[in-house]
Amino acid sequence: MKHLISPLDLSVEELDELMNVALDISKNPKKYAEVCHGKKIATLFYEPSTRTRLSFEAAMMNLGGNALGFSSASSSSAAKGESVADTIRIISCYADICAMRHPKEGAALVAAMNSSIPVINAGDGGHQHPTQTLTDLMTIRTLKGHLDHLTIGLCGDLKFGRTVHSLINALVRYSNVRFVLISPDELRVPSYIRHDVLEANGAEYQEVSQLEDALPKLDLLYMTRVQKERFFNEEEYIRMKDCYILDTKKMTLARPDMLVLHPLPRVNEISVEVDKDPRAVYFEQVQYGVYIRMALILKLLEIQV
After folding, report:
1. Does 186 have pLDDT greater than 90?
2. Mean pLDDT of the chain
3. Cα separation of the two ends of the chain
């Protein structure tokens, strides 16, 4: 049985195939409107989420299926002490596929090992967020036309940002992708990402502390918020949260065709005035997220259209 726990669970060829299906879905939604009739997705969200949970539910409903699940650990039997392994065994009796978000790294893998239905990792701790990565890849490929020969700036919380870690893991497999890692020293990308992913794959990268210095050389800027929930010390969070704010003045330094992506939610790291800039594509990104999750559901359920 196929699960999606990490972006690396899919080969580059499988990723391309998935994005092709997602693109076809975007152009021909009626063709896919009933292909999952009678199927159910369970969304098990032990952490708060708006986009990811609702996009999975919308994806299944767009395919003609149904959704069930919970939106917080406190509203599930986890509050009574039930283990992830036991929960997924129960859910396997109710649904055909499951999307799980959990604050502990490795929780989705534990679920997959105990499940009789496909499990999708919808984010585990500060570790992986593979379907956000699929969304990012589809956004880039659709709007840029390719996923190779790009210079990508990753800005903000690179230490705890699971979307950043997943995206780096995925993009190092493409040719001539260069990374500019923009963060304060305290929020630098973890050493295992530098050594075991970037350097191990021969990827070119540089670490800088000033967003303004990086902007003129970028094809893409991937902004992230400083995540309060990942900090143990609130004073440290308050000191870090406004480190990098993208506004219209900074955007004048960027190339005319540079795209701005963001996994959302944003707090104040992108000024609302930037929303009007045609290079800001983070709301388009959300729509691509529904299409790619629809394609993923079809792939894991082995439904051919």
Report:
1. no
2. 91
3. 20
